[in-house]
Structures are given as structure tokens and as C-alpha cells.
Amino acid sequence: MKKTTLFLLLFLISSCASIKKYNENLEKTIAPEKLKKDIDFAYLKLQKLHPNLYWYISKDSLDFKFDSLKSTITKPLKPLAFYEKLEPIIAKIKEGHLRVIPPAEKFTKKEIKELERQKGLLGRMNYVIDGDRIFVKDNADQFENIKVGTEILKIKDTAVKNYLEKYKTFINSDGYNKTFQKYSLARNWPLFFTIENGILDSVKIETKYNNELKDFYIHREKITKKEEKASKAKNKKLTKSETGKVKDYNIITKSYNRDLQFPTKDSAIAYMKIKTFSGTFSRKFYKESFKEIKNAKSKYLILDIRDNLGGSLYEINNLYSYLVSEKFQFVNDIEVTSRNAMFHADYFKPIPNLAKPIAALVYPLYFVGTALSTKKKDGKFYLRNNGIFSIKKPKKDAFKGKIYVLINGSSFSAASILPSKLKGDKRAIIVGEETGGANDGTVAGRYSTETLPNSKLKLPIGLMLIQPHIKFTNTKKGVVPDHEISLTTQQVLAKKDLALDWVMDEIRGEK
């Protein structure tokens, strides 16, 4: 017991010292020669590990961009300033999963607990981006009484457009898609602002609502003990309940990740909303839901995956088996760069520190499995099919009626692969906005997180080329809907749902 206590004490002291050293390094400048070595290191790792690096940009063009970047490094830079130069080049590769992780201050466990007792600042609201303008989309807890539709003109006396022009260069999407950026920027600009300015106790914003200008000094509020206790009790009850598990209750958004409804009295229409393919209890949800749909004798299924950023490939493969009536292959063999590529995959990184000794004992088995996981075909390397994505049979309660799928520019990764497959197999009518993820696949799955040797910036590189089993469009764009519907900013702020309205009108017309 004494040895364990001593170990934990030494671990905590070491961890605090490591955090302090890391934060100190964020303020130190790095010599140009070292930064140029980091650029070469990053490009070398991309060439070695990324299975489709030149999908959307030619090698000559990317070579030129990396060389040009090195020519701009003429003076020492701090890690954040270096990130602001490197990330826009990485974004030119046009792979939505590929990005440098911005260097941010780290905190001790005590500091993290203190921050968790606070409600935050700009991140407490949701936003709509319209060009170089920011509007408040949602303000659920009436933070500072800022109304939905309020335009933010300035932050810290700096025009919003100046922030957005800078942050836009950090945003990436798959291929030549243009719909993803505004959604990604709306989600992430508060994060970029915080990394640039640090965690502030308060911030001044200048706003406009109904042509009335108003300044707000928004403050970082503390969560009261009463609020904290009530929230914990509610979340515990929901996440441990059968409904909370199967529908995957999210304590951050305070909503269910999955939901099934029958919007008409005769239950002819089933509406299924999936916010993210988390994988959590998904098998049970689909099994119960499609049995319920079958018993209800629904003739139409509306699958809503708007604002779904993807997730589990296993989940969408399983979901697809409820949407077809014949045997199918969901994705092609997964391509990697070499027989050794998967040895670079992050193994210890996602494992908690206290569990790493156990993980180390299991590693020999993982090593052998990885060594046997690849095969060579036609001069390329692929992962051996382990049965998950081989030819599958449809489920016994598979839906046989008409399917409509709702998508938008924030349907990404797995939420682009699913509608791509459905459209390619002519199994569904796709409605809405072009997806943010590519129609012909993506590079993701397992990652190798590379640390640049001098700046210590992190570069996670996807190791797996995942493509739906379809006839490729080769458009280098997202999934293009059969019926396109895009909303104006005012329609978004007014909570209009024109895509769902259109589908309901179509069904009423048929009925």
C-alpha cells in the first residue's frame, strides 16, 4: 500500500512538472533552421503514412507549397505562430480528417476541476457563419440575455471579420467541397479564439440586433453547488437508464444522440434522427427500432443525419443491413501505404495512464495481430477482411419501404459514406445540401499521431483509405443530393426546416 501511494505521489509530481515545462515551452521561440526541419519531418511522415496524399492536390503542387512555406520562415517563432503558418498548408491537402493540433496551454487536474465548475464564455452559445459575419443561433440558458439572431460585430474591439479571415485558413474539408467550412468554422472559432487569447474571465463584445448596437461584457460564471448537484443527478439517472443507454444520452448537449418518432397518427412515416455514429449501444437501438417500424407497418423512413460528424464504421455497416433486402458489401478492402503502416497506429495514446501497464502486457498479442493484418494485391497493400465488412445479409426486420435521407454540409466522414452507399445502390432519395465528407471515401480509421521534434506540434495522420463499395463519381466532391435544399441565414435563425418539410409534402402527395 505504501509503495502504491508513493508511486501515485511521484506520478502526480512528475505530471505537474511536465505540464509546467510544456507551458513554458509555448512561450519560447524556436530557431528557423529547427522549424524547417519540422516541416520536412511532417511532409516525410505524410508521404510515408497517408494512403492517398495526392488525391486532391498533385505532388508537384504540394512540394511547391512546402518549399514555399520554408522560405517564409526567416525568424524564430513560438509554437502557436508556427502552427498558424503550417496548418494552412496542411489544409491545402484537402483531407477533412487531417489537421495539426493547435498548441494550447495544459492544466493540472486541480485547474481542470476548477474550470469544469465554470460555464465558459463564447463557447456557451451556438453560431451561424454567413461569409465574414457571426450570428447567435442558440442561447439555451439565456446567457447575458443575448437574443437569437444577434450579430456579433466586434470582440475585444477587433472586427469579427478579422478573426474569421485568419481562422478560415485552419479549416479543412474533403476535396473541393465548399459546404463544410461554414459549419466547421461556426463550431470551432471560439476554440481558435481561446487558443489565441487564453482563457479569459470576461470579454467585451459589440453586437447588433434589430439595428440596435449594444455592448456586452460577458463573464465566466461559476456553476453553483445546487446547479452542479441537480445536473449530476439528472445525467446519472439518464445515462444509467435503459433509454439513456440505448438512445445514447449526451451530457454535454443534454439530448439523446439517437431517436425514433412516428410523426403521423397512422405511423406510416418513421423518422430516425442520428446525431453521431458513436457506436454506443447502437446494435440494440437499431434492433429495437426496426422491429418497432415493422410492427407499425411504416411505409416511409426518413433518416436524418444532418450535422452528424461521423464516427463508427461498424455502426453504419450494421445500420445499412436494416435498409436493404439483398446481400451487400458495404466498403471496399481498406488500403494502407505499406505492410508496416499499422505498426505506427496509436496504441498507448488513448489508454488511461493507470491502465498502460496492462496494455503493455497485452502488446505482444497486438503486435502479432498487426503483423498478420495486411495483404498485398496488385502492388498495393490492404487490411485483411476480418469479417466485419465482408458480404453481409440483410437483417430479418430490414425496412422494405421508401427511404429519404436528410444531409447537409455538416454530414461528415461516416455520415457521408452511408448516404454515398445508399445513393450508389439507388436505395434512397437524398435531400438537402452536399455533404462535407467526400462521396468516394475518406482517409481516417486508425491514426498515427506524430510529434514534430522541435515545435512539439501534434500531427495525427489517418492510416486507412476507407471507400464505399460503389461506382465512384470521381467528382472530388461530397454526396450531392437528389433534391438540393439550402437555407439562408435568416431561415436557419428562424428554425425553418425546409428539407424535412419537402419530404413530408412529397409523402403526402404520394399518399
Automatic annotation (TrEMBL):
Molecular function (Gene Ontology), one example: serine-type peptidase activity
Residue intervals of the Tail specific protease domain: 239-486
GO biological process: proteolysis
Keywords: Signal
Keyword presence, Chloroplast: no
Signal peptide feature range: 1-19
Name used for this protein in its record: Peptidase family S41
Organism name: Halpernia humi
Lineage: Bacteria, Pseudomonadati, Bacteroidota, Flavobacteriia, Flavobacteriales
